[in-house]
Write a structure and sequence with these properties.
This protein is α/β, with parallel strands linked by helices. The protein contains 15 helices and 13 strands. Strand 12 and strand 13 form a beta hairpin. The mean pLDDT is 90.
């Protein structure tokens, strides 16, 4: 007889196998202010803070009743790999291999790992576009430093400490936006850096789908033809077509993906896709000692079967990550059964409706510039009160007030999540975003009015007023 796992046990399982961002505090909440499981949640965030859905809880229960031995879990990961390949590959092709990671941030270590394997003594220049709109731990990870106080094994590590003193890496960060919020094209700066540094191994990290949906011009890969470049593209939002992924893989671009943003699986689940050409080069390397210190981050089971024993990494089976990725691939399969034209129609209708709802309160909301250049499933906006914009710290306070509140007395849902604040310079904005599960619901219910989303707009206004009234009371006492 199958046993149903208790919520508290499920929380413990899902809070393992990554880092302290999803450890639960005394109130059962992550650092994002939300639980890992919960009933009647409405999710409108493009970030990794999704409570586990009922569908995913059911799947996790089934898997926990089916998977007993380590070999069972290894086979389940192999099933995930086979499914992802079948979803992404063009028919009759096998374009890539997969390295799994504890989170999206941990993917940033992998190009450094590959650089150490292929060119262990060469200076590395690590260039990141769209810097303020990618994960907050990216800066430290890009410098081969620990970005968290714990690793996937649950071991205490020293945040900001370099994981390997022999890695000679210099990180360069290019902003996504000007101080006025306009989107910046990084092409000129990248070309200049490449031409001036022919001696370095240069990792160029493009972003195709940032937190606010910015998409770098991928033609840059063809415009800069230099033998000392490793190209990567951050597709962590994973709001992309199969065609885009295969075009990039053919260009030998390393791809960063996650299952816990657009596909709304429990946080975290990351992965790197590498072309078979790059994989073949790695497999020809005889000396794997230069990457030994990466075993503080990765397990041998994170890597393809033929690479596992070469790494020399810990024999740690991350069952929590396997559960999370199981949820992600199941959701991708569900979503792909829906007609693309109907999906696009619902996305456009949602966007149009919510833009109108925001513009109806022009004294509170101001849409970020160039919304037409961003992904249609994400809306980004600044917030004002009495004619003054809220800064990043004020938006963080407002965000936590919104996601920690219980709305059962006045609404049909108990809690909501929205996109966390994103800072650019001294300014900041919030986001509303829909993922695959939201869109499936819109299509299934033939949604036209998006009343819940309109209610969320009103909740933001209400919580903003509450915050300002509280601050006034504090000042007056």
């Amino acid at each position: 007889m199958n046993k149903k796992i208790k919520n508290e046990d499920l929380n413990q399982i899902l809070s393992k196998g990554a880092d302290d961002r999803i450890y639960l505090n005394e109130n059962g909440l992550t650092k994002y202010g939300v639980p890992l499981t919960g009933k009647d949640f409405v999710t409108r965030g493009s970030c990794t803070c999704n409570p586990t859905s009922k569908e995913d809880i059911q799947l996790i229960n089934e898997l926990l009743n089916e998977l007993h031995s380590d070999q069972d879990w290894i086979k389940q990961q192999e099933k995930i790999t086979i499914t992802l390949k079948s979803i992404i590959n063009i028919e009759k092709e096998d374009a890539f291999e997969i390295v799994y990671t504890p989170s999206g941030t941990d993917i940033v270590y992998l190009p450094l790992l590959l650089a150490q394997l292929l060119k262990p003594d060469q200076e590395i220049h690590n260039i990141f576009t769209c810097f303020e709109e990618i994960g907050s731990g990216t800066k430290l990870a890009s410098e081969a430093k620990f970005y968290s106080s714990y690793n996937q094994f649950g071991n205490k590590i020293v945040k900001t400490k370099k994981l390997d003193q022999n890695i000679n890496v210099k990180s360069i960060f290019l902003n996504a936006r000007t101080s006025d919020g306009d989107i910046i094209n990084p092409e000129i700066e990248i070309k200049k850096w490449v031409s001036e540094n022919p001696q370095a191994l240069i990792i160029i990290n493009l972003v195709y789908g940032s937190k606010s949906g910015i998409e770098d011009n991928l033609s840059l890969i063809d415009k800069i033809n230099a033998p000392n470049i490793i190209w990567t593209t951050d597709l962590c939002q994973f709001r992309h077509s199969k065609e885009i992924l295969n075009i990039l893989l053919k260009k030998n671009c390393l791809l960063f993906i996650t299952g816990s943003k657009f596909y709304q699986s429990p946080p975290f689940c990351g992965a790197l896709l590498m072309s078979q050409s790059i994989f073949s080069k790695i497999m020809k390397v005889s000396n794997w000692n230069p990457i030994s210190n990466f075993g503080q981050i990765f397990s041998k089971h994170d890597f393809p079967q033929s690479m596992k024993d070469k790494t020399g990494f810990p024999d740690f089976l991350n069952k929590s990550r396997i559960l999370r990725w199981s949820c992600a691939v199941k959701e991708i399969e569900r979503f792909n059964k829906f007609d693309k034209n109907i999906i696009d129609h619902k996305i456009n209708l949602w966007r149009k409706t919510i833009v109108e709802a925001l513009l109806n309160h022009g004294d509170v909301f101001e849409l970020m510039p160039h919304q037409e250049q961003s992904n249609k499933t994400i809306l980004s906006f600044r917030i004002m009160y009495d004619g003054k914009y809220l800064d990043h710290n004020q938006l963080k306070e407002l965000f936590l007030k919104i996601v920690k509140s219980d709305y059962r007395l006045t609404n049909t849902f108990s809690n909501i999540t929205i996109g966390q604040p994103v800072a650019y310079g001294k300014k900041s904005f919030l986001r509303l975003a829909i993922g695959s599960k939201n869109i499936r619901q819109f299509v299934t219910e033939d949604e036209h009015y998006f009343q819940t989303d309109k209610e969320i707009v009103q909740i933001i206004i209400s919580k903003l007023k509450e915050s300002k009234d509280e601050n006034k009371r504090i000042k007056n006492t």
